[in-house]
TrEMBL record:
It comes from Jeotgalibacillus terrae. Belongs to the RecU family. It is found in: Cytoplasm. Signal peptide: none annotated. This is Holliday junction resolvase RecU. The keyword Magnesium applies. Mg(2+) binds at D50, D63, Q82.
Amino acid sequence: MLETYIDMANIKYQQSGKAEIIKQFPEVTVTLKEQQRIMSGFYKAKGAPDYIGLIGKLPVCFDAKETAIKTNFPLHNVHDHQVAYFDRWENQGGKAFLIVCFTSMNETYLLPHDVLKERWQAAVAGGAKSIPLQIFRDHAILIKPGSGLTIDWLPAAMEERK
């Protein structure tokens, strides 16, 4: 559901001229097709983030993630190529982040890349393999409904973190 809500927000942002966000789909090599239905295939390469685009002149890229766990966000939901992509994006002056929904808590956060990267590097070095909910509450931005949207992520993306 998270991506559906984000897609709805992106349509509204485009219509109002606030942002131009594109949902990306990974390229697939089809190995079996019957009539017009794809029966089997595989991803050609590791995909780019779920969404890329512009908020005014600010390039943004982000991924949407959900977890039913109440206490933390497991880092196995994130892949090394995603963190590397976010690094390259920010090194070019863009803004990268995750939108993470704790479905059982009904809380959605924008997690800036620098916080993700810090926790990712700690996990790679043998630390915790998840990000506690409290880290989100302390270092991420709570995404609230607004403007007739369930997930109004744009104000959070433009807000400076605490």
